[in-house]
Amino acid sequence: MSASAIYILDLKGKVLISRNYRDNVDMSLIEKFLPNLLDREEEGLTSPIVQVNNVNFLFVKHNNVYVVAPTTKNANVALVFVFIYKIINIFIEYFKDLEEESIRDNFVIIYELLDEVIDFGYPQTTDTKILQEYITQESHKLEIAPRPPMAVTNAVSWRPEGVKYRKNEVFLDVIESVNLLVSSSGNVLRSEIVGCIKMRVYLSGMPELRLGLNDKILFDNTGRAKNKSVEMEDVRFHQCVRLTRFENDRTISFIPPDGDFELMSYRLSTHVKPLIWVESVIEKHPHSRVEYMIKAKSQFKRRSTANQVEIIIPVPPDVDSPKFKTAVGSCRYVPETNCVVWSIRSFPGGKEFIMRAHFGLPSVLSEDPENRPPISVKFEIPYFTVSGVQVRYLKIIEKSGYQALPWVRYITQNGDYQLRTTL
User: Fold this and answer.
1) CA-based nearest residue to 266, from 288, 285, 246, 286
2) Where do the MHD domain residues begin and end (predicted)?
């Protein structure tokens, strides 16, 4: 990635702040950026790139400002956009939001940040935890510039040195989201598990952590294929993980950042049995009323319980006089989104509940069943992973030899979880 400069413009195209990094772009060309963009939009062309005199202006609009990066080279466009969004996130971390007012109030620190995150058009330190150690809101008041932390020059750039805690602890959450689409005939059209491992680390010094999962490739390589294992796809790690070690022996070894971070993410394209199954029976009485019978069944083991369950049932836009009947949970009609929300605080495994709804229906229009929105479900099941991913061990190695407490939680929740309704 190489950006020749960075501009931040207001909605009228006026430059609020800019920094030239390579001196290979006529900085006045930015005056033609917004007129060109508006002309393209009038012609119905939408693109995040505007070309002016062989210069490509890549931009992102955020609130009431444009963040623009011009380049004359055949740059990697995806990386440039990733970097623009990274700059936006850095400003949000510092100023709570990026908008015209926050830019005008923070010119000095913005210039300091732009000088630190880019050198000759190439990204440098973009980790806000590191930046905030030596670029502060009051940095322009300091008489002596503070020395950059060791993390900037250290190979472990994501963790400062000298971290100390009275009580050393590690919290690890395995969180899985279920994406599911079920047809009106009851067939599963799409099922996917998207998972991540999030950590909260309160450890002194420079500890090394080793995490073991029931990884299928590891189990196959070590002759433990009969054990319950999981084959994860699209695995992505935080930069702290030693990728060579993982590729060699599937060990997840790393020196963690301090505090909260996402260690890894993964995906499983596998057939998922719907954890909460919903059936609907809809009876329409023309020009008078419509009645719903909704049956919800939890299809997971009895020892687990889904919390904060919401079953969202779409209804016609002109219904009135709602009446509900259910032995479990509560119902409310939400006219703004044309739906009924059936809320169940606690839904144990292996249970089945029924809700009935009655509405007046003054409309003479007939609803097309093909275009009826699906029922969607929200839930969270603690102490449970639908994929079967398990943390086998979490070892903490630190030269001082202190004892640390690892805490592990499992949570399964809904992602895009939808069931099409039947008449």
Assistant:
1) 246
2) 167-420
